[in-house]
Design a protein that fits this description.
Elements: H1 3-13, H2 20-61, E1 64-65, H3 68-71, E2 77-78, H4 82-88, H5 91-124, H6 127-142, H7 145-155, H8 162-169, H9 185-213, H10 217-225, H11 230-241, H12 243-258, H13 262-269, H14 274-277, H15 280-290, H16 294-311, H17 313-322
Helix pairs in contact: 4-16, 5-9, 5-12, 6-9, 7-13, 9-12, 15-16
Main location: membrane
Membrane topology: Multi-pass membrane protein
Family: Belongs to the binding-protein-dependent transport system permease family.
Amino acid sequence: MTSSTTRSTRRATGARPRSAQPLSRRVRLAGRWITPWALLAPMAAMVLVALGYPLVRQAVMSFQHFGLAQQFGKPAEWAGVSNYVTILTDPYFWSVFLKSILFCAWTAGITMLIGVGVAVLMLRLNKVVRVILNTTLIIVWAMPALAALTVWQWLVDPRSGLLNYLLTSIGLDSFLNFNWLGGHYLTFFLIASAVIIWASVPLVSITIYAALAQMPGEVLEASEMDGASNFQQIIHIMLPMIAPVIALIGVLQVIWDLRVFTQIYVLQQAGGIASETNLLGTYVYQTGIAQGDYGVASALAMVILALTLVLTSRYLRMLYRQGGMA
């Protein structure tokens, strides 16, 4: 067959030369590889600008003597690791550090237990009650923190608070005019943890309920046929299947509770003894803003970041394994 006959046959059948086919496949493969990165690039750039620069600036400041004078243009002096030495040799830092770890473990643990319990409960409620409960949770979660804290301060007011009234009405006269926020740091942290748990449970409950609601019904039906009780379904089937969701929300809760600031600071202003009720978040604020020692405050912030990474390292490794990165 002649070449002219071959070309005419290809034109008639619409066939492309063999050399063009691999090129077309390469273009399609390149497009599939480039498109996801092209879509992610703008958001990645925004994150780097919004978070990357402040993080790098904070890391640099943690190795400098940076105070009020540097805020007005005086060059900062290099401090090396002296800011970190100052922190790590300060007994008060270790006191705040221990309180922060215990407070975070308490609040995050109780929040997760209550949140999972409420999510499982919503599965067993009828539609009307479930909608009402969901709406209530959303309202609680959406309430501004300062507005919620104002209500809590009214509840624990020593003279006219509802909490003292209820306790004294059942015969506990020792709670007459009892100062929950200024009397002892343990009662302060009890109220603070109640405020944080109350505000955190809605998001945990809604997230876990959404995951539970997406479970395939065939699995539960098969377990019922095998004689599994409701409790066994929850413990051995439902919760293990949504373990990644629980792990994610648990890690986020640890991060939020470890660096909690607003609730502690506002309650301190309402009567708490700051020196005894400081956690890492308020300690950084007082060191940097109140005392003007931004170098030490930046070093404290880097220590908090390192602690957060240590506490969440197990979940990060799980993410890497699921993404095929390790």
